[in-house]
């Protein structure tokens, strides 16, 4: 590698460094933002209530789940056995076309309802039989009940007009009715982080955090009511899972690349941490860096610019191809890169992905110490998302920050890959909601009897 590239990369390494001291500082600021969010003050962390606590493992029944993530739509049938075991009995997966992500809101919900209709038909499920459906909707929602919530704003490339400010459960229910699906009722609205936490904690009570590291990034945890929670816990002293919406955390130091990326996104100024961490954006950071290097004449050739100027020309999936034996440049449409180019790209991807994992690690550490300042207990963290699961070395980089911050006590934190949270977990939340409803109605009936 020539001297100029080496110098560029060493400068890049500095720009993207996230030292142990940075991690500590970030965690402290994270706590401040959590506190502000819980107190109802302006904060980049929204701390959104879910209206449910963690499951006990005894929940049971059959449920449908509809999961709108960042990239895919999945329809699932889930069975809970009441002894901590949950299984998917059928699943359909379809890509959400960009035209649907950005087209009129009504069409987006028609697309979801059509997904349910096809699922019922394909799996020969009686359309007349009553079914509870859990709706996993992985966007910032202000819930007012377990089955009602208003979209605050779109993220992750969705822009469908006419949805922000609306109750998304009502929009889905209306779309189901338009499709003549009368027997399916939407009984729970679930964030994917909450579903992930529910999936793992259904069988493991030590699980107290759900994290997403995929297209986007986010996390949730159970908040004890003794804190100045939003005063929304259904029963006093009961825990409630809060959705942090941590992708929007904005107290991290950004560099010129981060700022350049933010300017070209659909939601400038927002989701600042997500734009440094998640799968949808780190490929963009790499693309902007490679483009800058090409413009400076130290990488590729000028003719390759046309590939690199295209938004989203580099995905995080392709970044994980910068390991020996794989051809990253060929994958993005540049078959004639040199060995030196490949070597440089490898370093760029390593630098960007490492910072992503280290920031995620610091945020995770902040939430764990919020619940347990001295790490006295075991914490199992359920993590879903292809970035964490598939990017080589990603989990190790997350762990590394935990060890820097907590030394030996980092052993008390278990990072646990948990897929299907947004399907199985959503069904579990629907079951928690229905069992809670029963409980809440019981004392009322008893009271009535007493009054007679
Ligand atoms: P979602 O977040 O939409 O529910 P996933 O968890 O599958 O979906 O995450 C998709 C994101 O993960 C995309 O941004 C994609 O680029 C990224 N991704 C997929 N495969 C890999 C991989 N092998 N390495 C790194 N990132 C990946
Ligand atoms: Mg997902």
Bound molecules: adenosine-5'-diphosphate, magnesium ion
CATH class of the domain at 50-202 and 420-432: Alpha Beta
Number of strands: 13
The SSE order reads: HHEEEEHHEEEHEHEEEHHHHHHHEHHEH
Rg calc: 23 Å
Strand order across the largest sheet? 1-11-10-9-12-13
CATH topology of the domain at 50-202 and 420-432: Nucleotidyltransferase, domain 5
CATH homologous superfamily (4th level) name of the domain at 50-202 and 420-432:
ATPase, nucleotide binding domain
Question: Per CATH, which architecture of the domain at 50-202 and 420-432?
Answer: 2-Layer Sandwich
Quote the beta fraction.
15-25%
| Category from helices, strands and their pairing | alpha/beta
The separation of the N and C termini measures 87 Å
Total of helices: 16
Overall average residue pLDDT? 92
Shape: globular
What does this structure look like?
The protein has a domain at 50-202 and 420-432: Nucleotidyltransferase, domain 5 (2-Layer Sandwich), CATH 3.30.420. Helices cover 44% and strands 18% of the residues. It has helices at 3-15, 20-38, 98-102, 105-122, 168-178, 192-201, 256-264, 274-277, 279-295, 305-308, 316-319, 328-331, 339-371, 386-390, 394-406, 421-451, and strands spanning 48-49, 60-68, 72-81, 86-95, 131-137, 141-145, 148-151, 184-190, 207-213, 217-223, 240-243, 379-384, 413-417. A 6-stranded mixed beta sheet has the order 1-11-10-9-12-13, with helices on both faces. The longest helix has 33 residues, at 339-371. The N and C termini lie far apart (87 Å). Mean pLDDT is 92; it is low at 444-452. Residues 69, 192, 214, 384-385, 422 line the site of magnesium ion.
């Amino acid at each position: 590698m020539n001297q100029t590239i080496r110098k560029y990369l060493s400068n890049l390494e500095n720009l993207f460094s996230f030292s142990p001291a940075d991690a500590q500082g970030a965690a402290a600021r994270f706590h401040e933002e959590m506190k502000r969010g819980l107190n109802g003050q302006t904060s980049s962390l929204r701390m959104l209530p879910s209206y449910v606590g963690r499951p006990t493992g005894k929940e049971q029944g059959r449920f449908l789940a509809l999961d709108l993530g960042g990239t895919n739509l999945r329809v699932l049938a889930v069975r809970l056995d009441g002894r901590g075991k949950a299984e998917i009995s059928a699943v359909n997966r379809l890509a959400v076309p960009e035209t649907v992500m950005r087209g009129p809101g009504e069409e987006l919900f028609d697309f979801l309802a059509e997904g349910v209709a096809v699922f019922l038909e394909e799996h020969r499920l009686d359309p007349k039989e009553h079914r509870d459906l859990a709706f996993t909707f992985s966007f910032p929602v202000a819930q007012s009940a377990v089955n009602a919530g208003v979209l605050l704003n779109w993220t992750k490339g969705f822009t469908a007009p006419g949805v922000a400010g609306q109750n998304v459960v009502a929009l889905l229910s209306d779309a189901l009715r338009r499709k003549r699906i009368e027997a399916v009722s939407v009984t729970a609205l679930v964030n994917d982080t909450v579903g992930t936490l529910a999936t793992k904690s259904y069988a493991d009570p030590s699980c107290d955090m759900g994290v997403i590291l995929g297209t986007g990034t986010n996390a949730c945890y159970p908040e004890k009511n003794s804190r100045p929670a939003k005063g929304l816990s259904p029963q006093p002293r009961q825990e409630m899972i809060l959705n942090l919406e941590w992708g929007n955390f904005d107290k991290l130091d950004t560099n010129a690349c981060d700022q350049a990326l933010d300017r070209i996104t659909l939601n400038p100024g927002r989701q600042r941490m997500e734009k440094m961490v998640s799968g949808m954006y780190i490929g963009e950071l790499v693309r902007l860096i490679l483009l800058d290097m090409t413009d400076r004449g130290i990488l590729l050739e000028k003719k390759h610019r046309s590939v690199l100027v295209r938004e989203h020309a580099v995905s995080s999936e392709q970044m994980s191809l910068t390991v020996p034996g794989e051809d990253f440049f060929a994958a993005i449409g540049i078959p004639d890169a040199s060995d030196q180019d490949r070597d440089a790209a490898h370093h760029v991807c390593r630098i960007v992905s490492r910072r992503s994992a280290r920031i995620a690690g610091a945020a995770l550490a902040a939430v764990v110490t919020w619940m347990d300042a001295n790490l006295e207990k075991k914490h199992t963290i359920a993590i879903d998302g292809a970035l964490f699961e598939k990017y080589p070395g990603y989990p190790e980089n997350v762990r590394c920050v935990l060890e820097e911050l907590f030394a030996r006590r980092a052993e008390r934190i278990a990072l646990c890959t948990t897929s299907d949270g947004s399907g199985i977990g959503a069904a579990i939340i629907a079951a928690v909601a229905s069992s809670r409803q029963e409980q809440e109605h019981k004392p009322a009936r008893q009271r009535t009897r007493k009054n007679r």
